[in-house]
Amino acid sequence: MYIKQVTISGFKSYKNQTTLEEFDPGHNVIVGRNGSGKSNFFWAVRYVLGDAYQNMTKEERQQLLHEGAGNTTLNAFVEIVFDNSDGRFLGGKDEVTLRRTIGMKKDDYHLDKKSVTRAEVNNLLESAGFSKANPFYIVPQGRVQALTNAKDSERLRVLKDVAGTRTYEERREASLKIMAETDVKRKKIDELIEGIQERLAELEEEKEELREFQEKDKERRALEFTIYQREMDELAAQLSQLDEERVRKSQESETVQKGFSQRDKKINALDREIRELSHQLTLLESDKAEIEGDKDEAIRSKASAEMVVKDLEAAATGNEQKKAKLNGEVKDLDTKLASKQRELDRVLPQHQASVQEEQELQGRVGEIEVQRKALLEKQGRSQQFQTKDERDQWIKEEITKLKRASDEYSKQSKSLSSDISETKRQLGTIGEEIEESNVRMQGRKKRLVEIDQKLNELREDRNAKSEERKNLWREAEKAKANQSSNKLELDKAERDLFSMMDHNTRAGVKSIRAIAQRLRLSGVYGCLYELIEVQDKYRIAAEAIAGNSLFHVVVDSDATATRLLDEMKKNAQSGRVTFMPLSQLRAREHRELPAASDSIPMMKRIKFDPKFTRAVEQVFGKAIVVPGLDVGAKYAKDEKLTAVTLDGDRAERKGALTGGYVDMRRSRLESAHNAKAYRSEYEKSTKVAEESGQRAEIISQEIVQITNEINALDVERRSLTSSTDPLSRDVTTKTNLERKLNARLEEQEQSLHNVEANLKQLQTQVSEYQRWMTSAMTSKLTPEEQSKLDSLTKEKESVEKKLVDAQESRTKLEAKRNVLSIDLKSLKDRRALIVAQVDRLQAGVEVGGTTEVGDLRSRKQELARYTKEVEAATSKLAGVEKEIERLNGLLSQRKTALEQEQNEYQSEERNLEKVRNELKKFSGRRATLLTRKEEWMKKLRDLGVPPDDAIESYQNTPSSKLNKRLAAVRDVLKKYDHVNKKALEQYNNFTNQRDQLLDRKQELDKSAEAIEDLIKVLDQRKDAAIERSFKEVKQYFAEIFEKLEPKGRGELTIIAKGDDSQTQDMDEDDDEAPDKSLVDRYVGIGIRVSFNSKLDEALMNEQLSGGQKSLVALALIFAIQRSDPAPFYLFDEIDANLDPMYRTAVANMIKELCAEGKAQFITTTFRPEQLQVASKFYGVTFINKVSSIQAITKDDAVNFVEQEQPQ
Fold first, then answer.
1. Hey, which residues does 1130 pair with through a beta bridge?
2. CATH code at 500-665
3. Residue 773 is inside which H or E element, if any?
4. Which of 648, 793, 890, 1071 has its CA 20 to 30 A from that of 581?
5. What distance, in Å, lies between the first and last C-alpha atoms of the chain?
6. Closest C-alpha among 647, 671, 670, 674 to residue 658
C-alpha cells in the first residue's frame, strides 16, 4: 500500500484546489523555497491521517483555512488516494479515498465518499499498520533535532511507546479502577447483609400471628370473590341484553341512515337537475331574446327591402319602356342609315367621276386658252416689236415671269402635298383613337357585367358569413354561460373536497397547482384522487384503504419533487404535501391475490392510466374487498393483506379491526369525481367559448375583407359608369373632328389639283414662248398657225360647253352628296345618343346619370334572404318557446319532487335523530354498566384469586347469607388491625435479598481475583514487550549505523536505577526471564557510538558534534521504523543538519528501503543527495500568497537545489 494521489483545497497556503500527479511507489522528493508551502503539504497529510490536529478549537480550525486576498475561504479539505492493491485496507477495493473536510463549525471525514467518524478512521489506519504508539512514519521538521537532543529518559519513553506499553498501562489503570470499585461494592454488600439479618430476626416473631390473620382473611376473600363474581355475571347479562338491543337499534339506524343517504343523494341530484334546468332555461330565454331581436331585425330589413324592390321594379318598368322605345328608334335609325349609306355609296362614285371629268375639261380649256393666247399675242404683238431681238427680249422677260409664277405654284403644290399628308396622318390617328375608345367602351361594359356578378356573389358570401358569425357569437355566449355555471359547480365541489383536508394539506395542494402552472412543469400529474376512478359501489372501501394518501401528489421524479419543495419553501403559507415520485417507487413483486368468490382485489375496481401503476399499487396493492369482517380477518391473517368491507370496516394484517359509522355525504372520492366531471365540463365549455370566439373573430376579419372588396368594386363600378359618358362624348368629338379633317382633305386635294393645272398652263405657255422665239419674225400668223388658232377657238367653245355641263352635273351630285352626308351624320349622332341612353339605363342609371336606382335582382335576392330569415326565426322561436314550455313543466315537476323529497328528508332526519338519541341512551346505560363492571373487575383484581376449595364451598349459598357471613368475618378481622399484614411477604423479600447479595458478593470476589491475575499478566506482557522492542531496536540501530558510517559502530544501552555505572547491557540477561523489579528500575536509554574505529572506545551521545548527533538520531529513527514498519514514510528536511557524506548515506539508506519494495518515501530537501536516488520529483511554488505543487523533472529539481545552495 502507498499514497497514490493527494488533493488539497483551501488548506493553509493552498487556496486553490491542487491535485498532485500520482506518486511513485518508491522515493518521491519535493523541493521548493523556504516558506513556499512544502511543510504545509506535510501538515495536510498529517491532518488527514490524524497524526496532528485532534480536538481543535474554532480558532485552531480558522488557522488551517487559507487567508489571503480575495474571497474568504470558508471550507478546506485534503483528500488522499491510497493504492490498496495489497489489501491492507479491508473491503477489497484497489483504491481507497480518505478525505477530511474542515470549516468554521465542522470537521468531517469521508471514506470513499461516505461519511465516517474519526474513530472509524483510526481503526482503519491501525488495521493497515499505522500504530499510534509509533509516530515516526511521519517525521516533520524539528523531530530529528528533538530526538538528537533528547534525554535518556525521553528515549526510554519513545521505546515504551514503540513497544505498545501505553496500551498495557491504560488497561492496567482501568483494571485497578475496577478493583477499587469492586472493594467499595463488597463493603456495601456486607453492610446490607448485616441489616437484613437483623430485620429477619424481627419478622420471625410476627409470622405466627400473621398466619391466624391469613386464615380469616382467606375466608373473607373467598366470600368477596363469590359476591363480586355474581355481580359481574349479572352485569354481563345486562350488558349482553343491552348490546342486543343496541345492535338492533344500530341496524335500524343503519337502515335509516342508508335511506337518509339515498334521500340526500336524490335531493342533491334533484337540486343539480333543477340548477341545470334553470341554467338551460336561462340560456333558452337568452336565445329567445336573441331570436326575437333577429326576427324583428329581419322583419324590418324585409320591409325595407320590399319598398326598395317596389321602387326598383317601378323604375325598372319605366326603364324597360324607355329602353324598348329607344331600341325601336335605334332600329329605325339603323334602317335609315343603311338606306342613306347605300344612296351615298351610289352618289359618291358619280360625284368622283364628275369631278374628274370637270378637272380634265378645265385642264383642256386651260391648255387651249394658253395656246390661243400665245397665238393671239404673237399675232397682236408682232407689230409691237421693231426687231427680232426686241421681240426675243420681251419673250425672255415673259418666260422669266412665267417661270417665277411656276416656281410659286410648285411651292404651293409642295405645301399642299405636305398638308394633305399631315391631314391623312391626323385622320389615321383619329381613326385609331376612335377604334380604341370603342374597344374601351366595350371593355367597360363587359367589366360592369363582371362587377355586377362579383358583387352579387360577395354580398351573398358576406350575408352567409354574417349569419355564421351570429351563430358563433350565440354559441360562444352559450358556452360562456355554461362555463360560468360549471365554474360555480366546480368551486362548490372543490370546496367540499378541500373541507375534507387539513389546513396544511389544503394549502399544499393549492400551492403545488399554482407552482406547476407558473413553471409549466409537465412532470406534475396531480393528487392521487385525480388520477383514479373508483366505481360508486367501492368508493367507501377505497377511501378506508387510502385515507390521506388520496391527497399525495404524484410526480415523475424526485428532481421534480425537489424543485417543487424548493419553491414551496419560499412561501411560509405553502402548506405541506407528500410526493410520490414514480421514478423512486418500487414496483411490487407480482403476487396473485386470492381469487375467491368472497374477495375481490381492490386494484380490479379502480381505473387509472397504466403509467401510474406504481403509485396506485403503493396504496391499494395489498387490499381486498370482502363481504364482512369475519372473512376479512381470515384473509388478513392468512394472506397478510388488508381487508375492507363495502361499508369501510377494515381488518389489518396485524389483527386490528377498525370500522364504525361513515358519513356517506362526505365522500372524498365522490367529491373528487364531481370535481373532475365539472372540471372537464368547465374546460370543454371554456374551449368551445374560446374556439367560437376565435372563429367569430376570423369570420369578422373575412367579412371586413369581403366588405372591402365590395366597396372597392362599388368604387370601380361608379368610376366605370361615370367615365362611360365622357368616353362616349370623346368618341363623338373625335368623329366630328374626323369629318372635318375629311372635308379639309377634300379641299386641300382640290386646291392641289388647281395649282397643278395652273402650273401645267404656265409650263405650256413657256413652251409656246420658246417656240415663238425660235420662229422668224413676221407681222402675221402663218397659215398653219392661223388654222390652229381657228381650230383651238372652235375646240374651246366645244370644251367650255362640255365644262358647263360637267360643272352643272358636279354641282348637283355634290349637293346631293352633302345632303346625304349631313343626313348620315344626323342619323349617326341620334343613334349614338340613343345607344348611350340605353347603356345608361342598362347600367342602372337614369337618363340624367346622377341617381343610382340599384340592382333589382340583388334587391330581390336580399328580399328572399330576409324572408327566409323571418321564416327561420319564426320556426326557431316556436321551437325555443316549445322547449321553454317543456323545461318549465319539467322544472315545476322537479321542484315539486324536491319539495316532497325535502319533506321526506326532514321526516327521516327526525327519525334518524330519534334513533341516534336512543343509541346515545344505550351508550350512556352501557357506559354506566361498564363503569360498574370495571369497578367490580378492579375489586376482583385487587382481591386476587382465592383457592378453588374456598370458592367452591360457597357456590350454592344464597347471596343474602354470603353477605351476613362476610360481615361477621370482617368483624373478626378488626382485632387483627395491628398485625403487620406484610410480615411474611417482607420476610420472604428480605430472605431473597440476602441470598442475592451473598451471590453478588461471591461474584465480586471472583472478579477481584480475575482482575489481580489480569494485572499480573499485563505487567509481564509489558515488560516482555519492552525488552523485545529494545532488543530489536538495538540490533537494527547497530546495523543501520554501520551502514550510515561503515568505519564506526554504535549500540544502545539501557540505564537502570542503583547501577554504579548507570548503565547495563541487557545482553547479559538474555537467558533470564525479566522480572518486575528489574523493569521498574529502567530509567533511560543510552547511546554509545564510534565514528573512527570499530575498536576504539565508544563515545556517549553528549560528546558528539551536531552533525554526528543528527546522524545518530536518524539511525535511531530508521531502527524504530524497521522494528515497527509502516507502508509509507514522510520526511521533512531530515538531512538539513547532516554533513555531505552522511546525506549521501541517508539517501542510499532510503533507496535501499525502497528497493526492498516494503515502503514508499515522500521527502523534502534542500540538498542534492536525495535527488540522485529518487524516482519522482515535485516542485512547490508560492505566488500571491498561494502555494501550488506539480511534478517536475529531475533536472529541474537538481537545478533548483543548486541555485538555492549558498555561493
1. 138, 1162
2. 3.30.70.1620
3. helix 668-774
4. 648
5. 41
6. 647
